[in-house]
Each structure stands twice: as C-alpha cells, then as structure tokens.
Write a structure and sequence with these properties.
- The structure holds two protein chains of two kinds.
- Chain A has 17 helices and twelve strands.
- In chain A, α9 runs parallel beside α17.
- Chain B is mainly alpha-helical.
- In chain B, α2 crosses α12, α3 crosses α9 and α7 packs across α9.
- The longest helix of chain B has 36 residues.
- Classes of the chains: A alpha/beta, B mainly alpha.
C-alpha cells in the first residue's frame, strides 16, 4: 500500500514537471525575444486575445502586434468611434510573427506589426502580406522622412508593403557615478577597467555594435555571404576576447534593470526605453549614444495577405497615428512613433530625455537594422552559439 | 468465458484515455520528429545532412558532450545526497519525523521550476542574501558573486531533481526488513559491509529508477540552466531551441532532438547492463 502511494506521488510530480517543461510558455518567457530587435515593452504576458469580440456592424479587426502597441485605452476609443471590435494577439519576436502568418498564409489576422528589416524578405519567401494602398492612408499624419524611407525600404517587386509605426534605438546605458567616462565607444563594453561590471546581449544587436566599432559596415557586408561570415567571425573573436569583462549576457528588460539598479553592472548595452525609464527614477543612469551611432529598429504596419477586414485595418492606422493617440503609445512604452506631432503631446519629461540622448546630429548617425538573407540568419546564430559556448 | 470477455472490454475502456495520451502526445510527435529529421529544410527530400551537421560542427558535439557530462555528474551528486537522506527517513526516524521530512522534500515542488530558479538568483546574486550574510558575519568584506558559474548550474540542477531520487530509494528501502540488517551485524558485519552487502543491493532498483529519472530531467533541462548559468550556459536543449525558433530550421532541430533521445536511451541501457539491473524489476 505504502509502496503504491509513493509511486503515485513520484509519477504525479514527474508529470507536473514534464508538463511545466513542455508548456513552452515558461521557457520562452524567461528568455525574452531571442531573435528579435524589438522587445515586448512591458512585462511579457502570455499571448492571448484581450477581448472576445462580438460581431457588430463594423466587423472585427484582428491584430498581431507587440505588447503596448495597442493599449486598452486606444482600443476602447477606437471601438467607440467606429463600432469596430478589436481583437489583439501579442508576439514575442519577429520569427514568431512570421511563423504564425506563414502557417495560414495570413488568414486569421488583418493587421500586423513586423520590424522593417523582416518585411520584404518574408514577403519574398512566404507571401504573407499585401501591398499598401496609399489612397486609404492619411499621409499627413506621418513624419514625411520616415514615411518615404519605410515605403522605399519595404518594397518587393516595386510595391511597398509597410508603413512606419514605432521606432527605437539600442545603444549604451551608463551609471555615471561608477563609470563617468564610459560611453565613448561600444568598445568600452570590453574595457578591462570595468571587468565584471559590463553586460550586453549575446544577440545580433551586440554583433552589429561591435562590427561598427571595429570599423566594419555590416549593412554592406551582409550582401555577400563570405564577406558577412568574415566580418561576423572578426566580431566573434573580439567578443570572446571580451568575455572575462562581461558579468553576464542579459536576456530580458527586467534582468537588465535589476543588474543596473543593484549596481552589479555599471555599463551595458540597452534599449533606449529601458534606460530612459531608469533615468526618470534616478538621473545617475544615462542613455548614451557612442561615436559609432545607435542601432535602430523600426516596427511597421503591414496588411495580411489573408486579411478579411482591410478597411478596418486602414481605419486603425489612421486612428492610431493621430498625435494624441500615438502619444498614448509613447507614454506607455517609452518608444518613439512616426506620428507627426506626437512627441510634443507625450510627456515633456520624456521628450527632454529623448532630445538629450538623441539630438539631431546623433539621429543622423543611427544605424538602422538591415534586411537579413537566410545565410545571414544562420551566420549570426552560429556566432551567438559559439560565443555562449566559449569557455 | 463470456464474463472474461466482458471484463476485458471494461479494461480496454479504462485504458483508452491512457492510450490516447500516449498515442497523441508521445508517439505521434516523436514519429513526426523522426521524419522531419531526415528531410531537407527546403523541399523535404530525404537527406542525412542534418545528422552530418551535428558531427561536422565541433560546436554541437562539444556542447552535447558538456551537457551529457554535466547531467551524469549532477545525477551522481544527487544520488550521494539523496541516499543518506532516504536511508535516515526510512530506517532511522520515527513515524512523525518521517512524515515531516517527507513533506519537507515534497514541499519545494509545489512551486514551479522557474520560480525555484529565480529564488536561487535572489540568494546567489552579488547583492543577494548569501553575500549579505557572509559580510554580516564578518567572513568577507566585499560582495561576492555566486551566480553564473558552472557550480551554480550544478546546485540548481541537484536541487530541482532531489525528490525524484529520494522517493524511489525510500520506496525500495521500505521493503527491506530491518531484521536483515540486524542479522548482518549479528554475523560480525560492520557498518560498511552491511551497507555494501545488504542495503545497497536491496535498494539497487530504487537507485536505478531514481538515477534514470534524474538523468533524463537534467539532460532536458532548459530553465534552470539558462537562468543560473549566465554567460557560459549553452546547453544542448538551447541549441535545439535555437534551431526551431531563431533559425527556422525545424529539420536540424528535429535531428538534434532525435540524437538527444537516442543517446539517453542507449546510455540508460548500457548502465542497466553494467549494473546488471532489470528495468521491469526496478519498476
């Protein structure tokens, strides 16, 4: 009898552990966004629709986007104005978005927010989007320079596939009390002076930073497989050499914030929004753009090839890009938008932080993420794995 | 005759949920994994490249060997810690203490592995509890970082698997008649010879079951290793995860999965042969 009870206990425990391990939810959630420039801005929640939609005269708009890009406040306002019900699902990284869209050829979603450098290549491989119909877009809402460049950069076979939405940069955050001189170059992340006080991600954004710091131009090199491998291997050598300086490679926003506020780390790579949030609480933390320039990403609007409610998608775009609405997103996430006049409507405190870190001359040096051919994805993953495996 | 068939039918009905569970959630996915691992990434033609890649890229073999060695080491360490505990709980303590200690071993498993790992981080980090206590006691005067070492991974893994070792051993020790131990002493045996000749052979099946379970759990661990290991933590499971999620290469990932599965099955089989244990008996 006793023997049997024990066996049952053990089996139940094993089953529980097994299910927890297989649940998948837990593992990716801790290792946030492994493949993606963008981030799940606030606490990463399980991706699930926020509301059960009821069919109404305006129909339903189904979005697949990042946490914080369709805040409840805006969804409600939009539904009240248009009668369209909104159903939002969240993604943790771009590959997840592409995988979900490719599985159904886009059926099931109307509007998605891929990062710019993933648009044209995934359109080429999977055909998951439809071209943007500019006649349905209120162009005056957009900052013209962003609109022009994103329409151009998202082209496939001569047609644009994306509109600009939210952007942000990755550079360095510095604890100015502990390391007042840091932040001149990305190579400061490798300075033995800060041994054990440095953190960055073992991901592509770090690879780009070091590539630029070592004098390469990865955006050019990526066009040729051999050339790109050469550049990335040089970066890998440098990063392995720098490994003793690093405390740990950070994976999630929460982890980086903890490392910095507990002063276990003084100098780190950081998304601008993380650094600005920290600055607001404690001005000793500063977001610094070194001489190589910040690395920038641009999240976009793209219309699904299988969209069932295209009109609603354009209505949402024209709605969310109005300055007072875009300001809600800026305040919620800490990222910037392509909406003309939104920054001024957002909090003045934030606007000042942005202006300090990214004055026009720094804006001009932003290195935008470039589209990645298949082989580049593999080369980067090779480097990331070898870096983590190096002892 | 009629009665027997009827009873058999009832038995089959009872088995259906179990068969569905195994068939849909275990057999089918593994068959799919197996097929995928022999297909080309584009086009899906038959190929052995996915397996060749494992042996050609020294990185993967290196990570794999590291994962395997770590798993074996932590399994042995877990056994070393669990066996005395199991022995004391079953043979030395009274009923009340026994229940209390059993509860103490089971209790930590009421929280998920993820939370356990985060708890370790709170204890181990440079500004964490242990570092603070050491300073308070005057043993050291500056913060000490315990996280992000190989030994941290070992601590985490041992902790998450101790239950699965202790319970099977307790289970087998429970059936050992105390009079056998007394007889051994009466016949002139000392503590070590009694241990070697009487107790360990009897507990053998329990040790085997526990070790197999712990070894498999360690080999397939993901959360504890990545959270506690930090910058040096590449585990084979993470390489599999990268293939599926980062590189979009399901086929390569499947091949890695099959390799991991095959290795663990063969390894367990070899250990069973060497120790002359029989799995049916052990279970």
């Amino acid at each position: 009898m006793k023997r049997r009870t024990l066996i049952v206990i053990v089996l139940l425990m094993a089953l529980g552990l097994f299910l927890a391990a297989c649940g998948g939810g837990s593992a990716p959630a801790t290792k946030e966004a492994p493949a993606q420039p963008t981030k799940a801005p606030e606490a990463t929640k399980a991706p699930e629709p926020t509301k059960a939609p009821e069919a109404k005269e305006g129909g339903v708009l189904r979005m697949l986007t990042w946490e914080g890009y369709a805040p409840e406040e805006l969804v409600k306002k939009f539904s009240d104005e248009t009668g369209i019900k909104v159903e939002v699902s969240y993604i943790g990284d771009n590959n997840e978005l592409i995988a979900k869209m490719a599985a159904t050829n886009g059926v099931g979603f109307d509007l998605v927010s891929p990062t710019l450098n993933y648009v044209s290549n995934s359109q080429q491989e999977f055909g998951i989007y439809q071209p943007i119909d500019l006649s349905k877009v209120n162009k005056d809402l957009f900052i013209p320079a962003y609109l022009d460049s994103i329409l151009k950069e998202s082209q496939f076979e001569g047609k644009p596939y994306a509109l600009p939405f939210v952007w942000g940069t990755t550079a360095m955050v510095v604890n100015t009390e502990k390391a007042p001189d840091a932040g001149v170059s990305y190579l400061d992340l490798c300075d033995p002076k800060y041994e054990g006080r440095v953190s960055y991600r073992a991901k592509y954004d770090t690879l780009y930073m070091f590539a630029y710091a070592l004098g390469y131009d990865p955006a050019e090199a990526v066009k040729d497989e051999d050339e790109y491998r050469k550049v990335m291997n040089a970066v890998l050598d440098k990063l392995i050499e720098c490994k003793p300086v690093v405390r740990t490679y950070w994976d999630s926003r929460q982890q980086l914030e903890e490392l910095l506020t507990k002063e276990e780390v003084w100098v780190a790579s950081s998304w601008d929004a993380i650094a600005w949030t920290l600055s607001k609480d404690d001005p000793k933390f500063k977001y610094v753009v070194p001489k190589e320039g910040a690395v920038g990403w641009f999240d976009t609007f793209a219309i699904s090839a299988g969209a069932e409610n295209v009109d609603a998608a354009y209505k949402w775009i024209n709605f969310v890009m109005q300055p007072e609405n875009a300001a809600v997103i800026i305040n919620g996430t800490g990222y910037q938008t392509a909406s003309q006049g939104a920054a001024e409507k957002a909090s003045p405190e934030m606007a000042k932080l942005v202006a300090d870190s990214l004055p026009p001359e720094k804006m001009a040096t932003i290195k935008w993420y470039f589209p990645l051919p298949d082989y580049a994805v593999d080369i980067q993953a090779d480097v990331e794995e070898q870096l983590k495996a190096a002892q | 005759m009629w009665k027997r068939i009827k009873r058999a039918r009832g038995l089959w009905l009872l088995l259906i949920p179990m068969l569905l569970w195994i068939g849909l959630l275990f057999v089918l996915p593994h068959v799919k994994l197996f097929i995928l691992s022999f297909q080309e990434r584009r086009g899906g033609a038959f190929t052995l490249d996915n397996y060749a890649a494992f042996f050609h890229k020294s990185l993967y073999t290196k990570v794999f060997i590291r994962t395997a060695l770590f798993s074996i080491f932590t399994t042995l360490l877990t056994l070393l810690i669990s066996f005395p505990a199991a022995f004391i709980i079953t043979k030395v303590l009274g009923k009340k203490m026994k229940a209390l200690l059993l509860l103490a071993i089971v209790l930590p498993y009421w929280v998920s592995e993820l939370i356990q790992a985060f708890t370790w981080m709170v204890l181990f980090r440079e500004t964490g509890v242990i570092s603070y206590v050491l300073q308070y006691l005057g043993i050291t005067h500056h913060n000490i970082e315990f996280l992000y070492h190989n030994s941290t991974i070992v601590v985490g893994l041992v902790y998450t698997s101790i239950l699965f070792m202790t319970i099977p051993i307790m289970n087998s020790l429970d059936t050992l008649d105390d009079s056998l131990i007394e007889a051994s002493y009466d016949l002139g045996g000392d503590f070590w010879s009694t241990m070697r000749e009487i107790i360990i052979p009897h507990a053998g099946p329990g040790i085997m079951v526990g070790s197999i379970m712990v070894f498999m759990l360690n080999l397939g661990n993901y959360v504890t290793v990545t959270l506690l290991g930090g910058k040096n933590s590449l585990w084979f499971t993470e390489a599999i995860y990268n293939q599926f999620i980062v590189r979009f290469n399901q086929n390569q990932g499947s091949a890695f999965g099959v390799i991991l599965l095959t290795f663990s099955v063969i390894f367990v089989w070899i250990v069973l042969k060497i120790t002359k244990q029989d799995l049916t008996e052990a279970m």
